[in-house]
Amino acid sequence: xxxxxxxxxxxxxxxxxxxxxxxxxxxxxxxxFIVLFASSSIDMxxxxxISNAFNAExxxxxxxxxxxxxxxxxxxxxxxxxxxxxxxxxxxxxxxSTLSEEERAELEKLAQIQNHLNAYVQENGLGDQLNTAxxxxxxxxxxxxxxxxxxxxxxxxxxxxxxxxxxxxxxEMDVPRSIIISGHTDxxxxxxxxxxxxxxxxxxxxxNFMKVLLENPNLKPxxxxxxxxxxxxPIATNETAEGRAQNRRVEILIQPKIEExxxxxxx
Length: 267
What we know:
Layout: H1 2-12, H2 19-39, H3 44-57, H4 89-97, H5 101-123, E1 130-135, E2 138-144, H6 161-170, E3 179-184, H7 198-213, E4 224-228, H8 241-247, E5 249-254, E6 265-266
Parallel strand pairs: 3-4, 4-6
Antiparallel strand pairs: 1-2, 2-5, 3-5
């Protein structure tokens, strides 16, 4: 009787061998969600480390980490190094992740031009007056107005002509691209013998700066556009002197070369 009872108990024992692979699967799923969460704010160095670790463990075939980075080669780095612009990290990633190979290649070329501009700025100690930013809209060069104009004037100062001419040389590209020159002011009202509004002042500053650039015979006028936005596109507060100084600026936007662009106009 005792032998029979022991045998019966043994037969009622539930096989728990499935728990080991199940626990391993849960561990992998938790690790995957941690990786996905960490990757949502892309730090390229950490991302590459994670990629190498996963590819080493999960050998065989191509995984999700084997595909090229959605960020252009010229701007690889941590997420803190994204170009200065109004867009968030998420918006920047969403835009760059949908680019075609041709568009990515074009952004890489613009990044090379940006490096050239940044080298000129650094060599001449112009970091407080000029800065660049690269986004999917193109390469932007922002110039503080005090490096080009006197207060209330739209004429480029003669002592700053060399800077404008150096910029025009940098704009000589193997593949010509459309370039938009934009004038901006602060919100302090202006009314003098030349201009009745900041809008008029911003337009003429853009036009006159464009004229200086186009003194370079190697640039094509039909690829240039000049426009003015007055005080209506501030990049800083107009409540402080420093903020108003930042808003008084001229911007050069080098657009990506996607297709043949329209002829020059003044908006």
